[in-house]
Structures are given as C-alpha cells and as structure tokens.
Amino acid sequence: MEKHKRMRKLEVTIDRFPIAGKFTIARGSRTEAVVVTATITEDGAVGRGECVPYPRYGETVEGVAAAIEALRPQIEAGLTREALQTTMPAGAARNAVDCALWDLDAKRSGIRAHVTAGVNRWPPVTTAYTISLDTPEAMAEAAAKALERPILKVKFGGPGGDLERIAAVRRAAPEATLIADANEGWTEETIGSHLAACADAGYALVEQPLPAKEDEFLRGIARPVPILADESVHDRAGLDRLVGLYDVINIKLDKTGGLTEALALADAAEALGFSLMIGCMVGTSLAMAPALILAPRARFVDLDGPLLLAKDREPGLTYEGSIVYPPQPALWG
C-alpha cells in the first residue's frame, strides 16, 4: 500500500483589530492592532498562530508576512516544530508558524497542546490590566475606573511627570497590585528617584526601567522594588548576562519566536533563579491562548491584549473581569 502523503497548505494574512480608545507607551500611541496570522491546513485539520510584528525589534508587518511566505515550501513539505527552531530566527514570524504547528498537532492528534507541553492542570488565571501612559490626572482616572481589577500594569516613561504619575495611580487604586512599566523610558539620572517613588507607593515590580543597551547600570544600584526584564530578554541567548541585573523576566512569544522556545526559556530562567511574567503584545485571543500554557508557573500574568481591543476574534478567550480562562479547542490548542 502506498504510504499516505501529507497535503499541507499555508495561508498568511494581515489582520487589523481596532483598539478601544488609544494605547500609549513611552515609544508612542496606537489605535489598532495589526497582526499576522499563519494558518496551516493538513488533511482537514487546521492550525493557526498569530504574531504581532514590533518595530522596536526591527520588524514590520509586511516583512514578517514575507518571511513566513518565504518558508512556504518547507512548511508545506512537512516542516516540524523542532526543525523550525533552526530554520527561522526568534521573533514574530517564527512565533506565528510555531504556534500554528502546535495547534495543528493538537487538532490532528486530539491531544490538547497543554498536555503535550507537560502541563497537567490548566486553571484560569488573573491577568494584569494595562493603564496607558497619559497625564497623571488621566491615568488616575483610568485606574479609578478599573478598581475591580486586582492587578494594574501602569505605563510610564513619558516626558516629565512620572513621579506624579506613580503617586496619582496609587492614590486612585489604593488596594491594587501595581506594576510599573517604563518601557526603557527612564535614565541613569532618574532611575533612583523613580524606584524610590515606586517603593514608597507600594508597587510590586518595575519593568524595564532603562534601555536594554544601558541596563548594565542596574548591577550597581539599590533595588527597593524587584526589577523585571522585558526588552532585555528575548530567548535563551544572553540570559546568563541578566543574572544580577534583574529579578524577573517577561516571556513574550513574539520575542521568543513561539511557544517551543518560550517553554525552554522558562526552564532555563527558573534554573538561574529568575521569577517569570508571561506577557504579550497588543493582539487578539489567538495570540494569548498559547502563552496561557506558561501561566501556571508565572509570578505575574499580563495577557490583557483582547481587553484593550474594541473587537476580538471569534471565538475568543473568556474573560470574567481580570480572570482569563484557557482556550477552547475551536480557538487554539
């Protein structure tokens, strides 16, 4: 009998989802999430993965879509997740393909992705909710409107006023767990006063206070608040350098290049004594779903992307306030 031959097809699309209002960080503002979706079909099974190209890392939507298209011959010939890791560099393009292959494997085998990843229990988790960078008054107003959300991730790093912003958000949300995210927006001259202000206001964590290229400065300063690496960490390469600079690392699948490397990075980071945050770019539920596999081992979860959108994919993840539930198979995995 002739051996069954795989018939794979790849589809790459650029999809746009409006953001509810405006999302602002130290590097600028956006009013829509533009994502690249990879869909791989094989023998009637369909696997999907979404990525969010990020200009900070030299990515464009068109460039990422083209990189995936360039891999079409290998993908349609049966490229495996393991081979993908050495075929594409870490980044958004590989993330979309890797997550699509995870989803395809789950759909073909009937074995949920979290089981394949070695996660026995996949409970709902509480995600942080983002307060965009704005004036102290506007940020305080946004925090006051989010009092039902127990964890707020607050964007800083704007021109002037961060000390006032830090205090204003705490006054508006006295009971919330607060995470300060400077998005590389502080300097060697300002970091001491800003960390002290965060400590005085009872912030739980400060994320990426300095530019990644300047973070060696962190080695010699007092840290009254734990410091989290985001832009300074992508995959396992260079992780050793971060020991002594950071206490926590932010794992984002668009940086690691997919779930496969994210799981390996989590293992390596924990072995070095780092705690974990599982984070995201502003994308849809399809981008959050594979990241949720890492959530049970994380100190903090920041997967609120769909909560910031005016319209999500359907079907999407289920959010009850800040509690997010694992995906149904119709979405992913």
TrEMBL record:
Pfam families: MR_MLE_C, MR_MLE_N. Mg(2+) binds at residues 181, 207, 230. Residues 136-228 form the Mandelate racemase/muconate lactonizing enzyme C-terminal domain. The active site is at 155 (proton acceptor), 252 (proton acceptor). Binds 1 Mg(2+) ion per subunit. SMART domains: MR_MLE (SM00922). Keywords: Isomerase, Magnesium, Metal-binding. Its cofactor is Mg(2+). Its EC number is 5.1.1.-. One of its GO terms (molecular function) is metal ion binding. This is Dipeptide epimerase.
